[in-house]
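Appendix C reproduces, verbatim, an entry submitted by the partner laboratory led by Prof. M.T., so that reviewers can inspect both the input and the predicted structure.
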Amino acid sequence: MRALLESGMSVAAVARQLGASRNTVAQVRDAGVERRQGYERANSARPAQLVEDVRQKIAKDPHTSIGALVRETGTAPSTMRRLVEEDLLRHPAASGAHR
Protein backbone atom coordinates (compact mmCIF):
# COMPACT_ATOMS: atom_id res chain seq x y z
CA MET A 1 0.00 0.00 0.00
CA ARG A 2 2.74 2.44 0.97
CA ALA A 3 4.65 1.70 -2.25
CA LEU A 4 1.57 2.55 -4.32
CA LEU A 5 1.08 5.80 -2.43
CA GLU A 6 4.75 6.70 -2.82
CA SER A 7 4.47 6.05 -6.58
CA GLY A 8 2.05 8.96 -6.73
CA MET A 9 -1.27 7.12 -6.83
CA SER A 10 -4.16 8.85 -5.11
CA VAL A 11 -5.70 7.50 -1.94
CA ALA A 12 -8.89 6.67 -3.84
CA ALA A 13 -6.98 4.81 -6.59
CA VAL A 14 -5.00 2.76 -4.06
CA ALA A 15 -8.20 1.95 -2.15
CA ARG A 16 -9.92 0.78 -5.34
CA GLN A 17 -6.96 -1.33 -6.45
CA LEU A 18 -6.53 -3.05 -3.08
CA GLY A 19 -10.18 -3.23 -2.09
CA ALA A 20 -9.56 -1.20 1.06
CA SER A 21 -11.43 1.83 2.33
CA ARG A 22 -10.08 5.29 1.59
CA ASN A 23 -9.90 5.91 5.34
CA THR A 24 -7.63 2.90 5.82
CA VAL A 25 -5.36 4.00 2.98
CA ALA A 26 -5.25 7.55 4.38
CA GLN A 27 -4.39 6.23 7.83
CA VAL A 28 -1.51 4.21 6.39
CA ARG A 29 -0.36 7.27 4.44
CA ASP A 30 -0.46 9.42 7.58
CA ALA A 31 1.07 6.84 9.94
CA GLY A 32 4.13 8.27 11.61
CA VAL A 33 3.27 11.82 10.57
CA GLU A 34 3.26 14.08 13.58
CA ARG A 35 -0.12 15.69 14.01
CA ARG A 36 -0.73 19.11 15.43
CA GLN A 37 -1.93 18.80 19.03
CA GLY A 38 -4.27 21.73 19.36
CA TYR A 39 -3.20 25.31 19.25
CA GLU A 40 -3.81 28.67 20.80
CA ARG A 41 -6.05 30.69 18.56
CA ALA A 42 -5.27 34.36 18.30
CA ASN A 43 -8.00 36.51 19.75
CA SER A 44 -8.50 38.57 16.62
CA ALA A 45 -11.98 39.83 17.55
CA ARG A 46 -10.76 41.27 20.85
CA PRO A 47 -7.28 42.71 20.28
CA ALA A 48 -5.32 44.01 23.24
CA GLN A 49 -5.74 47.64 22.16
CA LEU A 50 -9.54 47.31 22.09
CA VAL A 51 -9.53 45.69 25.54
CA GLU A 52 -7.40 48.53 26.89
CA ASP A 53 -9.61 51.20 25.27
CA VAL A 54 -12.74 49.64 26.80
CA ARG A 55 -11.00 49.32 30.18
CA GLN A 56 -10.22 53.06 30.09
CA LYS A 57 -13.78 53.97 29.02
CA ILE A 58 -15.27 51.95 31.90
CA ALA A 59 -12.76 53.43 34.37
CA LYS A 60 -13.71 56.91 33.21
CA ASP A 61 -17.47 56.21 33.43
CA PRO A 62 -18.36 53.01 35.32
CA HIS A 63 -22.01 53.40 34.25
CA THR A 64 -21.20 53.05 30.55
CA SER A 65 -23.57 50.56 28.94
CA ILE A 66 -22.61 47.70 26.66
CA GLY A 67 -24.67 49.42 23.95
CA ALA A 68 -22.70 52.65 24.31
CA LEU A 69 -19.41 50.74 24.15
CA VAL A 70 -20.65 48.90 21.03
CA ARG A 71 -21.57 52.17 19.32
CA GLU A 72 -18.29 53.85 20.25
CA THR A 73 -16.08 50.98 19.14
CA GLY A 74 -18.07 49.44 16.29
CA THR A 75 -17.78 46.03 17.94
CA ALA A 76 -20.55 43.40 17.89
CA PRO A 77 -22.66 43.30 21.07
CA SER A 78 -21.74 39.65 21.77
CA THR A 79 -18.05 40.46 21.36
CA MET A 80 -18.32 43.42 23.70
CA ARG A 81 -20.13 41.36 26.36
CA ARG A 82 -17.42 38.69 26.10
CA LEU A 83 -14.69 41.33 26.27
CA VAL A 84 -16.14 42.85 29.43
CA GLU A 85 -16.94 39.51 31.08
CA GLU A 86 -13.83 37.53 30.12
CA ASP A 87 -11.08 39.97 29.27
CA LEU A 88 -11.80 42.49 31.97
CA LEU A 89 -12.63 39.71 34.44
CA ARG A 90 -15.88 41.15 35.59
CA HIS A 91 -19.55 40.70 34.87
CA PRO A 92 -21.15 43.68 33.04
CA ALA A 93 -23.46 44.44 35.98
CA ALA A 94 -20.50 44.43 38.39
CA SER A 95 -18.61 46.97 36.30
CA GLY A 96 -21.56 49.27 35.83
CA ALA A 97 -21.69 48.45 32.13
CA HIS A 98 -25.24 47.29 31.45
CA ARG A 99 -26.78 45.90 28.27
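The mean pLDDT is 82. Additional entries are available on request from the coordinating office.
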